[in-house]
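Lab notebook, bench 4. The sequencing result for the construct came back, and we need a structural model before the next group meeting so we can plan mutations. Quick request posted to the team channel:

Model the 3D structure of this chain.
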Amino acid sequence: MDFKAGGRNLQRIRKQRKLTQEQLAELVGCTSNTVSRIECGSLFPALDTVIILCNALNTTADSILAPYVQADSTLRWTHLADKLASLPAAKQDKIEVILDCLIDNI
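Done. Here's the predicted structure in C-alpha cell form:
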C-alpha cells in the first residue's frame, strides 16, 4: 500500500504542532530518518507506531489514515471541518462560496 497521502497528513499535523521531524522522532522513540520516510510515503508504519505517532501529536488515527478508508465516510474531511468550525461565520461563508465555485467548475 502506498502511504503518501497518510505521510502528507502526518507532515501537515506535525507542522501544525510546530514540531520538527527530530522533535517528533524524539517523542515517538525513533529516528528523524524514520519520520522522514513515513512522511514521504516510502515507509508504511506498523500499527503500534501509528498509535504512538497519534498520541505524540495529540490527534486521532483517522486524521492520518482516512485516505485509506474505502467506506463512505466523513473521516477524510474531519480535519477541515474542525478548521472551518474555528473560523468566524463571515469567513465560513466566504469559504462556502469558494468551495461551491470550485465544485461547480471541476
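The mean pLDDT is 89.
Will bring this to the meeting.
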